[in-house]
Amino acid sequence: MNKLSIQDRVQILNCLSEGMGVNATARVTGKSKNTVLKLLEEVGEACAAYQDRVMRGLRVNRLECDEIWSFVGAKQKNVTQDHPEEFGDCYTFTAIDAETKLMPCWLVGVRSPDCTYDFMADLASRIAGRVQITTDGWGAYVGAVETAFHDRVDHAVLNKSYEGGPSVVEGRRRYSPATFVKCSKESVCGNPDMNLASTSIVERSNLSLRMGNRRFTRLTNAFSKKMANHMHAISFYFMVYNFVKIHKTIKTTPAMEAGVTDFLWSMEDIAVMADTNG
């Protein structure tokens, strides 16, 4: 890895950031698969550490939260006792500032009350002041939001109904959209502006995550084989999303719009940051 030039690293990172898999990146760049994975590990760790450090004291007015499904090693129904404990369903909790489009934090885990609370507690520690939050109908959000934010949150829930009921939707929605029937909004705590209660922006950002990260592509064999690599890839993705790529709506990067940074990052900046351990 020490023999890789900055140009080689940038080339590999550019391929990964455009949704190419590890094997495809190795073929295009002429580097070995192990070299690509080693670079992804170093960059992922550096990106996670840097964003954890700078995403503090954020002034935001309106957040949308959601979770996106993937799996590691094998789908949950195919996991056996012989498989590693990390194999099976994996959910990535995400949050986005509806105004600046900044995604301040994420959590990789399972769709459980404990993970939901951990995610909300981490999010609350990064936000300064009062904020309005909209979540979907996942029941664990109600207690997690109130516990994490206490009296400085206005929480609204957007419940969507699909044809076939919850059990059918849970089984099918991972691969194709279920038929939408109706939605309803509910004020849970505080005084949220129900006209602004929406999860459309975070759902759109989750689509970008699927398209920009090969590990999330449905119905392929491009899934993550190890949880560690999965987490490194996600950390790198959010670094590129927040600091490198210009958002079409705001005409700049989310990090610049939110005041987290005052310059436009390049892929070379990320490579250098990883080389100097963040």
User: N-to-C terminal Cα separation, in Å?
Assistant: 17 Å
State the helical fraction.
40-55%
General form: globular
Contiguous helical run count: 10
How would you name the CATH homologous superfamily?
A: Ribonuclease H-like superfamily/Ribonuclease H
Q: Which series of helices and strands comes N to C?
A: HHHEEEHEHEHEHHHH
Could you say which structural class the secondary elements and strand pairing correspond to?
Answer: alpha/beta
The strands making up the biggest β-sheet line up spatially as 3-2-1-4-5-6
CATH fold-level topology: Nucleotidyltransferase, domain 5
Q: Please tell me the CATH architecture by its name.
A: 2-Layer Sandwich
| Low-pLDDT sequence parts | none
Q: Can you give the mean pLDDT? A: 91
Please, could you describe this protein's structure?
It is a single chain. The chain has 278 residues and is α/β, with parallel strands linked by helices. The protein has a six-stranded mixed sheet with strand order 3-2-1-4-5-6. The mean pLDDT is 91. The chain contains ten helices and six strands. It has a single domain (6-275), classed as Nucleotidyltransferase, domain 5, CATH 3.30.420. It has helices at 6-17, 22-29, 33-54, 113-126, 140-149, 165-172, 200-212, 227-244, 254-257, 267-275, and strands at residues 62-72, 88-97, 106-109, 131-135, 153-162, 180-189.
